[in-house]
Amino acid sequence: MEKTSRDPAMTDVARLAGVSHQTVSRVLNNHPNVREQTRLRVKAAIKELDYRPNRAARALVTGKTQLIGVVAQNSTLYGPASLLSAFEEAAGAAGFAVSVGRVKVLDRDSIAAAVERHRDQRVAGIVVIAPNSSAADALADVPAGVPLVTVDGDPDRPTPLVTVDQAKGAFEATKHLIDAGHETVWHVSGPADWFDAAGRVQGWRAALDATSAEVPPVVAADWSAASGYRAGQMLARMPEVTAVFCSNDHLALGVLRAMSERGRRVPHDVSVVGFDDVPEAAYFIPPLTTVRPDFAAVAHETLGLLLEQVSDGETTRPQRTVAPMLVKRDSVAPPPR
Amino acid sequence: MEKTSRDPAMTDVARLAGVSHQTVSRVLNNHPNVREQTRLRVKAAIKELDYRPNRAARALVTGKTQLIGVVAQNSTLYGPASLLSAFEEAAGAAGFAVSVGRVKVLDRDSIAAAVERHRDQRVAGIVVIAPNSSAADALADVPAGVPLVTVDGDPDRPTPLVTVDQAKGAFEATKHLIDAGHETVWHVSGPADWFDAAGRVQGWRAALDATSAEVPPVVAADWSAASGYRAGQMLARMPEVTAVFCSNDHLALGVLRAMSERGRRVPHDVSVVGFDDVPEAAYFIPPLTTVRPDFAAVAHETLGLLLEQVSDGETTRPQRTVAPMLVKRDSVAPPPR
DNA sequence: CGACCTGGTGTTATCGCTAACATCACCGGC
DNA sequence: GCCGGTGATGTTAGCGATAACACCAGGTCG
């Protein structure tokens, strides 16, 4: 039986088209100085042979790959998962393959190891989804010279960074509640070491300060519905609580449930706003008013920033922020009189 | 300013160690015929220069890459997301990089395009997460000869496939309810075109048949909590319903909530079992008895099957199944008398 | 004691591509 | 009508690894 012959190479295309392999290369790379007729002949030959350029050979001679490495945590949290998914799509559309290095915990060693694996692969650039402080710390170890963009990372660090404008979203959510007539707004917060959570606290506080509203204590939680439920049980018992801004939709779901169990109707007695706009948010009872981050936009900005670094070596505007959008549904109403 | 000189190559290591580059290659690839002393000298040189082999060069000469392509849907559903995450980890541990090609919808064209992108990259093999029938259909277009493993795909197709044993998990869940004393078990199902959902229906029915229990009509839903809630509202009104097996935990959550709103206590009045064991399941009220698929095991099997194909060209046992585990919590009790 | 193996090493060719330079026909301008 | 420019193409030289073969010392064996 005959062994399957090797994949067609550039010379095979060249032979079929009656040109040199270099001309084939020129056609492939859209060089200007190729006669139209020749270009067509070459393209026909490429199609006929189902020729695909060998990326390894190209990478070898150019010293560049079309690969982007992403370091992400091994979690299924909505925010990071959406971000990753959006980034893969954006990079794919730009002709880059995305290699994902998963990490169990966001600590220094794991992240350093994941970055090393990517460097071994000679990725063109690396994106790190670093939503909490331990992850951000780990980036100090990454040697300079590797194009690197942090997503969801520490806004106080000078590394190139793209984030959702958490503070702005939180500000708008809070202001929306105040505008509805609430005297003040309580806040159920995510984990303190997450930048997302910190930014949302900051925006919430700013909105209260702007109208000289009293600032109640932050109710600390993690990102889970369970912890939102616990926080909600507490808040439901306090009659002065008429408006709650939750750091994400799952927390809000927990609060919604606690309120409902205590007989406090949403939005009639208590208004609730979330953050993330998870797919189910519109099906909560009542449909949840929330803040929608534009993950696709974050992904695009990230890719742009990274490719800028890849080509220029340096970046002029290292930090970019994407404004989220308030999505009004049915969980906000004026306070009861 | 001096331009950063190029990365060290094998010859640089060779020069430093006083050997030929071929000897360096032998050390790197663990060839037997290298003197121990030489091996150590070479290793020291590698370390000193922080040398990393150029994968492009290796791929060029060997014709193989260390890349695995994965095609997955652009969704954040718990099952597929966990699977992807687990696979990335497993492949990473085995020294393979994983390139993810996201697809917006699981239709023929999108999947074919994603597969083509991976073939362009000359991945060693491709994994397709194809949880519903349209995705499985699309695989008919994939040319033979590319190592390919389907995860969560159509069990009736002859392609190499790894799945959770949905039927077994559903069987056990249902049997657990029957063993607790329930006369029959109702089922809230996922979308009919998903294999996961179909397998769970099948297992549920088998368990009922095995004990000659009456088989109530399937309550059809999608995967969302919202649809589970709607199904639950209906079931809660029917006093003869004492046990419900839900096709996933989110559905179960919706059912739980509907039951609670109607004053039917879980597990005292109605028992509920879910599927997936999402992280929050232990924090539902009551903590949910559910079926836990072993995503890590699925990932390992998948990788194994793929690498077998890569090396052998053919596979002997093309279909593998991973048994899930029943996790007993507090949502199951004997029926009320 | 010379032929032969064998473990350790070096030399050379090669993978498929792009960059750089070479070639050549043809053009316009003085 | 010769010169230099320019557009279209071909030729050659690597990129950095592995594979195949060559080589050489030292031991084994007939």
TrEMBL record, chains A, B:
GO terms for molecular function: DNA-binding transcription factor activity; transcription cis-regulatory region binding. Gene3D superfamilies: 3.40.50.2300, lambda repressor-like DNA-binding domains (1.10.260.40). Residues 8-62 form the HTH lacI-type domain. Keywords: DNA-binding, Transcription, Transcription regulation. SMART domains: HTH_LACI. Pfam families: LacI, Peripla_BP_3. This is DNA-binding transcriptional regulator, LacI/PurR family. It comes from Lentzea flaviverrucosa. The lineage of its organism: Bacteria, Bacillati, Actinomycetota, Actinomycetes, Pseudonocardiales.
